[in-house]
Amino acid sequence: MTNHYELLYLVSAAYPEEDLAAIKEKVKDLIKKFEGQITFEDSFGKKKLAYPVKKAFHGYYLLYEFDLEGEKLKDLNNNLKLANEILRHIVVSKKPQSAQQRAEKKMAAKAVQIAETQVVEDKEKDKGKIKLEDLDQRLDEILGGDII
């Protein structure tokens, strides 16, 4: 039975971007070797790692979605572990998504990011403002009481 999977893998930034295409092809060939069919691919680009992985501080994040028989997943996983170029990888089972669903999800994530940025900007603007009640209280403290 064919299942749908997502593979996220990390390639060391020690490899130049020109070599990245060859590494991508190697991973594609591995998936095809086990009769998998790639349905979607994406690259998140070069990112700083949260902690060093095999002495690497930066890496390229790459993603593939593919269909593969469940029995062959273990063999694919073992071959990915043996690939020297791949620092880390994870394969998870996933529901297939259409291109429209992906686009909607991406737009929703962007809208959330814009909203979060707006909230931060609003907080920064309000940071320097003083409330009227606070101002009245400070004036009373400075003046030492009521004014006649």
UniProtKB/TrEMBL annotation:
One of its GO terms (biological process) is translation. Pfam families: Ribosomal_S6. It comes from the Bacteria. InterPro entries: Ribosomal_bS6, Ribosomal_bS6_sf, Ribosomal_S6_plastid/chlpt, Transl_elong_EF1B/ribsomal_bS6. GO terms for molecular function: small ribosomal subunit rRNA binding; structural constituent of ribosome. One of its GO terms (cellular component) is ribosome. The keyword Transferase does not apply. SUPFAM superfamilies: Ribosomal protein S6 (SSF54995). Keywords: Ribonucleoprotein, Ribosomal protein, RNA-binding, rRNA-binding. Belongs to the bacterial ribosomal protein bS6 family. Binds together with bS18 to 16S ribosomal RNA. This is Small ribosomal subunit protein bS6. It comes from Candidatus Buchananbacteria bacterium RIFCSPHIGHO2_01_FULL_46_12.
